[in-house]
Design goal:
By secondary structure, the chain is of the alpha/beta class. It has helices spanning 22-32, 43-48, 51-58, 70-84, 99-102, 112-135, 163-185, 200-203, 208-217, 226-237, 262-269, and strands at 10-14, 36-40, 88-93, 139-149, 188-194, 248-251. It has eleven helices and six strands. The structure holds nicotinamide-adenine-dinucleotide (NAD). The site of nicotinamide-adenine-dinucleotide has 26 residues, from helix 1, strand 4 and helix 8.
């Protein structure tokens, strides 16, 4: 069901790779709620071609940008301004990648070249996206930026590897930039800390199946899926949440505040 929550709003969605992607679901929901969007992803992701299906469905242009490149982001914003005839009201940052995770290198043996690359893509990119947006006055007053994160930023989840550090910095950038963008332009910036979700990035984490089942058992409401995440993100882009900023918001069925559940105790007693 749609509520026209984003009627008249314009936005940029980073990170839709395929139908499983959280950003894919957010794009569909934004479109259904009346927003106009621009889709962007890395040149490598664009070559896979799946994004074109989403672009057709949402009547959205696709503009490639590697988030580690200032030039690419400047070009993305310039073309988006041309397309909309002005700035945007919301941005979704739904990007993550760790070479150490991909290559199965444990945290205590991390290769720092890989660490730097993952940090640049997964964390520093939020700063880059915001810094260039501020410089080009890309986000309209009372605009909203959401970046996706995971609770391994606060607690240890061994196989999440260096992505835990990346997410800790990502959340810190959202808070700190939230101060400056808030005072200068009334733009709000939040992170949404999502349940484990079956996507390309998610499934890359070692032991993901056991992990997602554990989270399901440890969450009073069960794991939140990507569609539910999209619903939540839409509310954060809407005018109903104008005074929420610099927060890390858990969207995890209660996992983050649960010590233990009956289901887990039962399992341990077996
Ligand atoms: N899946 C989960 O369990 C889960 C849980 C919590 C948070 N998250 C976060 O959600 C976000 C989206 O991930 P997802 O699970 O939808 O997986 P996904 O693999 O569909 O999305 C990750 C995206 O990052 C993009 N990307 C990688 N390198 C890039 C670059 N250099 N420039 C531009 N884009 C680049 C990929 O192309 C891809 O679209 C990530 O921040 C992830 O950490 C995921």
């Amino acid at each position: 069901m749609a509520y026209n929550l984003l009627k008249g709003k314009k936005g940029i969605i980073f990170g839709a790779l395929n139908e499983q992607s959280i950003a894919w679901k957010v794009a569909q929901r934004c479109h259904a709620e009346g927003a106009e969007i621009v889709l962007t992803n890395s040149p490598l992701a664009l070559r896979m071609g799946e994004l074109n299906n989403l672009a057709k469905e949402c009547d959205a242009p696709v503009i490639g940008a590697d988030v580690t490149s200032n030039d690419d982001i400047e070009n993305l914003y310039a073309k988006t301004k041309e397309h909309f005839g002005g700035g945007v009201d919301f941005i979704l940052h739904s990007i993550g990648m760790s070479v150490n995770v991909r290559k199965n290198i444990p945290y205590y043996q991390n290769n720092y070249e890989f660490t730097h690359k993952g940090f640049d893509i997964s964390a520093l990119s939020l700063h880059r996206v915001l810094q260039i947006a501020l410089k080009q006055d890309m986000i309209n007053e009372w605009g909203s930026v959401v970046a996706l994160t995971y609770i391994a930023a606060q607690r240890v989840f061994p196989d999440y590897n260096d992505m835990a550090d990346n997410k800790a910095v990502l959340e810190s950038i959202a808070r700190n930039f939230g101060y400056y963008y808030g005072t200068q332009k009334k733009v709000r910036i939040n992170t949404v800390s999502q349940s484990p979700t079956r996507t390309t990035a998610g499934s890359g984490v070692k032991g993901f199946d056991g992990f997602i089942n554990y989270a399901e058992k440890m969450s009073p409401l069960g794991n939140a899926n990507a569609d539910q995440c999209a619903d939540y993100v839409v509310t954060l882009f809407s005018d109903l949440t104008k005074m929420v900023t610099m927060q890390n918001l858990f969207h995890d069925g209660g996992f983050s505040f649960t010590g233990v559940t009956g289901a887990v105790i039962e399992q341990m007693e077996k």
